[in-house]
Amino acid sequence: MDWYGLLVAAVAAERVGELVVARRNERWSRARGAIEAGRGHYPAMVALHAALLLGCLTEVWLTGRPFVPALAWPMLAVLGGAQALRWWCIATLGSRWNTRVIVVPGLPLVARGPYRVLRHPNYVAVVAEGVALPLVHTAWVTALLFTLADAVVLTVRIRCENRALDGVAPALGSVPA
Known about the structure:
Blueprint: H1 2-30, E1 35-37, H2 42-63, H3 69-93, E2 101-103, H4 121-135, H5 140-168
Antiparallel strand pairs: 1-2
Helix pairs in contact: 1-2, 2-5, 3-4, 4-5
């Protein structure tokens, strides 16, 4: 489990990196009159993602889950793909990306990169990671519980984000930014 603990720690470090980027981008957005929505669900989302990391390690440790290469290697590939998609989203949105729902009025919606295909590609990465990270070491209970809880949180989050995006740029539509 030592290498798995390092993998989970690497994902946790990546999350810290995201928070650093998000704080910088929040300052940029607020300087341009940004509006924040969804403050009520944000703490639950943060707690859920922290619980995912803790659950991965705890389940493997408490239950002695085995390492199953036939499951682990494909899940590691899915995890890598999820991280690549997440950072593609971050790079595409640039200063407008955030872990919070923060929208700058007057800016058109982004419709390039992964946003050409999906309105919320980052959440595809979140779902894939929530399944793959635990299953790298057969922590299937964590994968299942996170997926169920995340479905609830993402339903609230995506509705909130859609309302915020539609509210500040309803006449602009989705145009390249």
